[in-house]
Amino acid sequence: MSFDSLGLRPEILQAIQETGYTDPTPIQSTAIPLILEGKDLIGIAQTGTGKTAAFTLPMLEKLVQSAGQRKGRGSRALVLSPTRELVVQIEQNVKTYAKHVPLRVATVYGGVGETPQKKALRSGVDLIIATPGRLMDLMQQGCADFSECEFFVLDEADRMLDMGFLPNVRKIVSSLPKKRQTLLFSATLSKEIEKLTREFQHSPKFVEIGKRTNPADTVEQFLYEVTKAQKIGLLQHLLENNELYMVLVFTRTKYGADRVAKQLGKSGIHTGAIHSNRTQNQRARALSDFKAGKIRVLVATDIAARGIDVEGITHVVNLDFPPTPEDYIHRIGRTGRAKSEGVAISFITEDDRNPLRSLERFMKKSIIRRRSKEFVCTPLPYNAGPSKGSDRGGAKGQGNRPSNTKRRRSKPYGLDRKNFKKFGK
Ligand code: AMP
Predict the structure, then answer these.
(1) Is a pLDDT exceeding 50 seen at residue 137?
(2) φ/ψ (deg, to 5) at 130
């Protein structure tokens, strides 16, 4: 199926073409026609499947179609997303696809000043993309008008529940007109999510892409059994390998994220950290440095990492193992996005045996164990000459994948015994 046959107008097709997408992803080819028909939809899709465009493209089409019927200055569509990074990312998608159509968009999220957001809401934008907490604040101050809202998207609904946003989401939904189209996206389907769909939707169509229990097929997964004291040393050692080129590291705590970033920084590896104690500016800066290749490693906590859609993340490292299978799937979905490949490496301590067992039961498969003594670390040779503005090259300890070589995917993450001793206590 091609984008041309989906029923989108030429201006939107042109924007898609300029973005460089050739074919719709499975969720796009299934969901777009249903949304254009006006159906409510439950989309169960892992991250990286192209779900943002799957709801954004038909939403823009419908908003353009109904633009003439607008009576007042109320907003005509609302997208709720759990984190500010996700909101910004959806906005970037919307702006890309809507560049040839006359629609106005505003974002609303915490951690930044309210005034510009209030102004934008009052000016009568077509589409609002928001996190529930800040939107609720502004609604209580009388800044938002949803009396003309035709279209509501609840993105990452499972995460909204995990983060305790449901009461705010319910209040916001109760202020929307009953007659509207509602789309709900979630990486996983639970009883709570099913309950939400009954509450918010009307005879929804169901679209499920990929098996619910299987993370993205494009991600190769394995784990190392370590002690807590070995973690940072093992990470530093793995980072001597150039194949770990653009690396997202997860820690359980904000303090842990800062500590790891500092330790890697001391060993000469350019590293940034994002977590909820950092200001919006610091988070945005770390993300853009990571995207631009100015830092090679980004250390994040789960919540902060929700909005990370950075192309080309080669490796996700679970320095601290995630508490739930859903977290694991969300985390590893940051690599292997769309059609690229990725690797997820998890460090497992004695304390992680139960969550690991739950995960393997959830995925119905075991993750490959890599033991230190079974593998010999064979870092690739460094390429001379760093690229401009990037630390992914040149200096020892920084990755530098030669542009003309394909990433090798099998052995080289192991450690020999001699090296491993360095990390043990
Ligand atoms: P999402 O699942 O919406 O977070 O999208 C994951 C990534 O896939 C984003 O970087 C998108 O830009 C990209 N993407 C979305 N649709 C397509 C497509 N049809 N072809 C190639 N890449 C796409």
Answers:
(1) yes
(2) -145, 155
Question: Can you say whether the dihedral through the CA atoms of 269, 274, 277, 278 is positive or negative?
Answer: positive
- What does the CA dihedral 48, 49, 53, 59 come to, rounded to 10 degrees? -120
Question: Which residues, including other chains, have CB under 8 Å from residue 16's CB and lie 6 or more apart?
Answer: 3, 8, 53, 57, 97
Q: How many CB atoms lie within 10 A of CB 269?
A: 24
- Say whether 44 sits in a helix, a strand or coil: strand
Residue 115 Cα distances to 31, 199, 329, angstroms:
36, 33, 37
Q: How many whole angstroms separate alpha carbon 103 and alpha carbon 86?
A: 20
Whether 51 lines ligand 1, by a CB cut-off of 6 Å, is yes
For ligand 1, whether the C-beta of 50 sits within 6 Å is yes
Task: Give the span between the Cα atoms of 421 and 399, in whole angstroms.
Answer: 24
How do strand 205-209 and strand 41-45 relate by DSSP bridges?
parallel
Q: Using the atom order of ligand 1, give the atom closest to the CA of residue 28.
A: 19
Neighbour tally for 374: CB within 10 Å: 11
Pocket test for ligand 1, best of 52, 79, 155 (most atoms within 8 A of CB): 52
pLDDT for 157 beyond 60: yes
Task: Give the chain's domains with CATH numbers.
Answer: 3-208 (3.40.50.300), 219-368 (3.40.50.300)
Name 71's Cβ contacts closer than 8 Å, sequence gap at least 6: 148
Minimum CA distance residue for ligand 1 atom 19: 24
> pLDDT tens, 400-420?
443 443 444 444 444 444 444
289 closest CA partner among 301, 280, 298: 298
Confidence of residue 150 (pLDDT cuts 50, 70, 90): very high
Identify which of 304, 329, 302, 331 has the alpha carbon closest to the alpha carbon of residue 44: 329
